[in-house]
Amino acid sequence: MNYNEALTKLKEYGQEHVLKYFDELSEGEKAELLNQIDETDFSILTALEAKKAPAKKGKYEPLAAMELSEIEANKDKFYAKGIEAIKACKVGAVLLAGGMGTRLGSDDPKGMYNIGLTKDVFIFQRLIENLMDVVKAADGAWIPLFVMTSEKNNDATIKFLTEKNFFGYNKDYVSFFKQDMAPASDYEGKIYMESKSRMATSPNGNGGWFSSFVRAGLLKKAEEFGVEWLNTFAVDNVLQRIADPTFVGATLLSGCAVGAKVVKKAARDEKVGVVCLEDGHPSIVEYYELTDEMMDAKNEKGDPAYNFGVILNYLFDIKKSVAVMEKKLPLHIVEKKIPCLDAEGNFFKPETPNGYKFESLILDHIYEMGSCLPYEVVREKEFAPIKNKTGVDSVESARELCKKNGIVL
Ligand code: UTP
After folding, report:
1. Ligand 1: does its nearest atom lie under 6 Å from the Cβ of 180?
2. How many domains would you assign to the chain?
3. Which domain holds residue 193?
4. Ligand 1 neighbourhood includes 179 CB (under 6 angstroms)
5. Residue 286 CA, ligand 1 centroid: distance in Å
């Protein structure tokens, strides 16, 4: 793409300022910027227009979860089915580690964060230790682990895990893949520059994980291992149970295309998204969309009908994921801190949010899967997310929960 072509493309979306410093750039930098403009899909910015109009939602109905008592009553059957699938290498694990973790505010990948107090305990280490429990239970059958990174943290992630010898995991069963990036803009939809020769970009959300996985050639690799199901989970939950045999067995026996670990809401109006059906599809209703009527609705047992929140731990049927991967997921506009150039062309890292990132979300992938088993787990045992340094969902709260679960930090 040459300068004039780039200018035409930018004009179409009101982004000519991207070329503001073009004359100051070296030949190499000019080529890099033109290439970035060529590769960027600016149409995502039109999502900002849509933001002004309230999103159209379908008709919500409750989706019953498989609750603890039912799981307990069937646990031997579920476990046997799940561990058999794991031993046969039918289950892979996908670690979503492409996010920027801006709320935690560390420059390193979130998984490198050390939550230890008397010794090193890195987030990646906690996750791998949890996965190793299942490898042991499966008589040493390794579970293929696929790690999603982004352009921003891929090299640091690989270097760290390699230096740590994958915390004892068999490296022949670990693969990495990069997710795509999307431009980030100010509140008026003007793309920020992160240097004079580069538009500010950020990872495009966790919703595109499966298409990035396939594009990286990993579907083929997974199939060669014999993998039929992928347990996809977030990097930041340090109590995350991965490839949990009972959950795997329950999902496989349910006939659903996806299983979702859920926890019971702590209060009627707790600020969590709740699993439900939307026009017959599994979906999540955000807490601010829950009407009083929905909060008070009861199921046939007399319990709240919208009572379970997701914890970003899903088991996906690969075949069904392939069948729906061409469906375009909606874009979500998320307010974030975006490091960028100021009006004088100086780089700065904002202390507070200064614009928008454009992300697709894994929740919308669940919708496309058509059928879902919400599977209850005990919050205090399996859910300790680290989003912030202090307060709710923080390093502090996660440390407390680890302690309660006998994990030495
Ligand atoms: P979060 O919603 O917590 O986003 O991600 P984040 O970007 O990591 O953190 P903040 O909001 O900037 O503080 C939930 C999970 O999805 C992954 C994250 O790594 C985490 O495991 N994720 C998120 C991706 O893999 N890619 C993305 O583009 C966004």
Report:
1. no
2. 2
3. 58-404
4. yes
5. 18
Closest residue to atom 2 of ligand 1, CA basis:
99
Q: What pLDDT does residue 239 have?
A: 98
Q: 278 CA to middle of ligand 1, Å?
A: 24
Q: Is residue 49 part of a domain?
A: no
The reply to whether 396 and 289 lie within a common domain is yes
Q: How far is the CA of 181 from the centre of ligand 1 (A)?
A: 13
Residue 50 lies in a domain: no
Q: Give the model's pLDDT for residue 289.
A: 83
pTM: 0.93
Please give the distance, rounded to the nearest whole angstrom, from the Cα atom of residue 312 to the centre of ligand 1.
Answer: 11
- The Å distance, Cα 21 to ligand 1 centre, comes to 32
Instruction: Check whether residue 29 and residue 96 sit in a common domain.
Output: no
31-60 pLDDT, tens digit each: 999 999 999 989 888 888 777 666 678 899
Residue 298 lies in a domain: yes
206 lines ligand 1 (CB under 6 A): yes
Per residue in 340-381, pLDDT (tens digit) is 999 999 999 999 999 999 999 998 999 999 999 999 999 999
The 3-class SS string of the chain reads CCHHHHHHHHHHCCCHHHHCCHHHCCHHHHHHHHHHHHHCCHHHHHHHHHHHCCCCCCCEEECCCECHHHHHHCHHHHHHHHHHHHHCCCEEEEEECCCCCCCCCCCCCHHHCECCCCCCCEHHHHHHHHHHHHHHHCCCCCCCEEEEECCCCHHHHHHHHHHCHHHHCCHHHEEEEECCEEECECCCCCECEEECCEECEEECCHHHHHHHHHHCCHHHHHHHHCCCEEEEEECCECCCCCCCHHHHHHHHHHCCCEEEEEEECCCCCCCCCEEEEECCEEEEECHHHCCHHHHHCECCCCCECCCEEEEEEEEEEHHHHHHHCCCCCCCEEEEECCCEECCCCCEECCCCCCEEEEECCHHHHHHHHCCEEEEECCHHHHCCECCECCCCCEHHHHHHHHHHCCCCC
Pocket test of ligand 1: the residue of 94, 96, 201, 212 to mutate, having most ligand atoms within 8 Å of its CB, is 96
